[in-house]
UniProtKB/TrEMBL annotation:
InterPro entries: ABC_thiamin-permease_prd (IPR017195)
UniProt name for this protein: Energy-coupling factor transport system substrate-specific component
Signal peptide as annotated in the record: none
Organism taxonomic ancestry: Bacteria, Bacillati, Bacillota, Bacilli, Lactobacillales
Keyword presence, Isomerase: no
Transmembrane segments: 9-33, 45-65, 77-99, 119-138, 150-173
Keywords recorded for this protein, A-Z: Membrane, Transmembrane, Transmembrane helix
Length: 187
């Protein structure tokens, strides 16, 4: 395996810096959404609706820096940036970032780090959903909820991760490819 280049590490750091800021903004949306949904009895859905947004650094990092571990590193660094920006979620975001990145990494691993496409992003979305939901099932005490509510939370999380981590990441990659093509044709 080739060594990581400084350019790749710096690119991951830039991705992390940008997504850390996005994650901070998502924290504000989370607080607002929780305030709206809690009186209706749907407070836990605030996390699930926005969950995919907090997982985007991993697939973007994995798609742009195509190396084993880049999804995990990108997500953990983004979580670190969020924490350093002052996230009220605190250091716990590092554990979440590790699990989210590992879930996405499973998708790229399934393609033996040779396939970076929609199918492998989708596998990563399932991996991210499974690992993170298992962890947060205990962290948030979802076991005290009814089975129907737990299943609903899981489905909403999966849909959120698919939207943000597959559909939106694909759109970002298409824009990135267009910018790359413009740079080549004008260069």
């Amino acid at each position: 395996m080739k060594k990581w280049r400084l350019q790749e590490v710096l690119f991951l750091a830039l991705i992390a810096f940008l997504f850390g800021a996005i994650f901070m903004g998502a924290g504000v949306l989370y607080a607002l959404l929780t305030a709206v949904l809690t009186p209706l009895g749907y407070g836990p859905f605030a996390n699930e609706i926005l969950f995919g947004l907090w997982t985007m650094a991993a697939p973007v990092a994995g798609m742009l820096v195509r190396r084993p571990g880049s999804a995990v590193l990108g997500e953990v660094l983004a979580a670190l940036a969020e924490m350093l920006y002052g996230s009220y979620f605190g250091p716990g975001v590092l554990v979440s970032g590790l699990l989210q990145g590992a879930g996405t990494e499973l998708g790229f691993l399934a393609g033996r780090y040779r396939r970076y496409d929609s199918w492998h992003l989708l596998i990563g979305a399932f991996g991210t959903t499974a690992l993170s939901f298992f962890y947060e099932f205990f962290k948030f005490g979802y076991g005290a909820l009814g089975v129907g509510m737990v299943v609903s939370l899981l489905i909403v999380r999966l849909l959120s991760v698919i939207f943000f981590g597959v559909i939106l990441v694909q759109a970002i990659m298409k824009l990135y490819d267009k910018v790359q093509q413009l740079a080549v044709t004008r260069g």
